[in-house]
Write a structure and sequence with these properties.
The relative contact order is 0.13. A nine-stranded mixed beta sheet has the order 2-1-3-4-9-5-6-7-8. It is of the alpha+beta class. The N and C termini lie far apart (43 Å). Helix 2 packs across helix 3. The protein is built from six helices and nine strands; from the N terminus they run ααααααβββββββββ. A hairpin with an 8-residue loop joins strand 1 and strand 2. The longest helix is centred in the N-terminal third of the chain and has 18 residues. The chain folds into two domains: 75 residues, 434 Repressor (Amino-terminal Domain); 118 residues, Umud Fragment, subunit A (Ribbon).
Length: 201
Amino acid sequence: MGTKEELRKTFSANLIYYMNLANKTQADIIRDLKYGSGIVSEWVNGKKYPRIDKIQALADYLNIHKYQLIEPLSLHKQRKVNSKIPLYKRFLIEEEKVDYIVYDNKQSNHEYFALTITNNTLHPEFHKNDVVIVERVDKLSNGQIAVIKLKRKIQVRKVKTKKKQIFLETLLQNKKDDTIEIQSLDEIEILGVIKELKRFY
């Protein structure tokens, strides 16, 4: 374990690195996680070190693991586990698995699967034939992109939280007002959150 200054510098470097990978800014974190601008600036600039709950929230928001914010970048590759995960070609039911894909960032104690985007009506981030890597989770955090099953069909939605309520916003461009309050529909099954996008064309 390094000194407090080393810990702050390591956290700052990692936070900036993964913010850039996720195309996120300080303003995004302030808005989506409702943190003060001053404290976020101090984290980014290595002036302060967050509490462990804040580190976990930031990791969830950036779709990474907590260790990726607190360990030196040089150690991250040593923690990766090369592994094949199931690939589903259509957003239907779990029996549609047709192939496997290698996911280099797989962690040994987490479960993953991959899905192929089948249309061009999702958010501009996702195109037809994109493959998204999904990690199975038990709970959702604000700002995450969730994969859910509703009426035997799989959907991709953005997570928004308000007090103790969780809302799943549609990414379909032609259904802007189709928002689901997750506690209100028993038929919703949370499959996971998107960790990575792969584009092969």
